[in-house]
Write a structure and sequence with these properties.
about 10% strand, 3 helices, three-stranded parallel sheet
Length: about 100
């Protein structure tokens, strides 16, 4: 849209909120098991957000910033976001893996 300012960049950070502290015992290999049973809806929501941002703001880059909880052993939704990030070639900065 002409005359409308567009953001310089979108930084998405909702890894902790998406996972909602639901720890699970299953070992997840992020390269293969990103969309494991029970969490497909969360991954789909992340994809919808990324797709809409890229479509409506083609000149504004998007990235995921993945923080962790105050409990280092608690998992986050980073596993789910990685699949979306790879598909859309969106960079991921992971505080949890730093």
């Amino acid at each position: 849209k002409q005359g409308v300012a567009h953001p310089d960049m979108f930084i998405l950070e909702f890894a902790v909120n998406d996972y909602q502290g639901q720890d699970h015992d299953r070992h997840v290999d992020f390269k293969f098991d990103v969309f494991f049973e029970g969490f497909q809806d969360i991954a789909l929501c992340a994809e919808v957000v990324v797709h809409k941002l890229l479509k409506e703001n083609p000149n504004s880059p998007v990235m995921f910033l993945e923080f962790r909880t105050a409990i280092p052993a608690r998992r986050t939704a980073q596993l789910l976001h990685v699949g979306v990030a790879q598909h859309y070639e969106v960079p991921v900065i992971s505080y949890a893996e730093a």
